[in-house]
Amino acid sequence: MLTEVRQAFDGDEDIFKFFDPTAKVKTYDDVVANVVDKMFEYAMEYQVRFVSMDRGYVFTAGDNVLVSFGLAPERRNKEGLTELWDNIKSNLKNPFCCSLWAKNTRAIEWLKRCGMEQVDVAEFNGHEIITLCHSED
């Protein structure tokens, strides 16, 4: 798990501008540690699934929550992104949702292009969180 998360973000120079604004991350190691810590927090309360990919991962909670996902910058092409989306869909039941920090526009826009729709905006610690959901294709 640690390896896949590290590979998904290593070399992503933009990750810091999209990352959790409440986290105190300054290095890639901080990002990886923060993501893995959150995964363990979810695992304490939910049945979780970690799907390993070639230089990427998908992390879900229950049957309907996409918690986290990542793909190495060099794999963010049509083939890699299609594989990522296929892994997301095959490991969740419809409808499924994902909540992201509003500043994570890169992920939000990609999920929208994949067919997810924004259903909610909430505030947490002074920052907006966007919830997107996906129904049947």
Strand proportion, as a percent range, falls in 25-35%
Class by SSE composition: alpha+beta
| Strand order in space, largest sheet | 1-2-3
Number of helices: 5
- Distance between the first and last residues' Cα: 29 Å
CATH-assigned fold name: Aminopeptidase
Order of helices and strands: HHHEEEHEHEE
Total beta strand runs: 6
Percent in helix: 25-40%
Rg result:
14 Å
Instruction: Please identify the top-level CATH class.
Output: Alpha Beta
- CATH architecture, please? 3-Layer(aba) Sandwich
Task: Provide the domain count.
Answer: 1
Description:
With 137 residues, the protein is an alpha+beta fold. The protein contains 5 helices and 6 strands. The chain has a single domain, classed as 3-Layer(aba) Sandwich (Aminopeptidase), CATH 3.40.630.30. The strands form 2 sheets. The protein has a 3-stranded antiparallel sheet with strand order 1-2-3, with helices on both faces. Strands 4-6-5 form a 3-stranded antiparallel sheet, with helices on one face. A hairpin with a 3-residue loop joins β2 and β3. α1 crosses α3. The mean pLDDT is 94.
How is this fold's topology laid out?
Layout: H1 2-9, H2 15-18, H3 28-45, E1 48-53, E2 56-61, E3 65-71, H4 78-90, E4 96-101, H5 105-113, E5 117-124, E6 127-134
Antiparallel strand pairs: 1-2, 2-3, 4-6, 5-6
Helix pairs in contact: 1-3
Summarize the structure.
With 137 residues, this protein is α+β, with helices and mostly antiparallel strands. The chain is built from five helices and six strands.
List keywords for this structure.
137 residues; alpha+beta; Aminopeptidase; 3-stranded antiparallel sheet
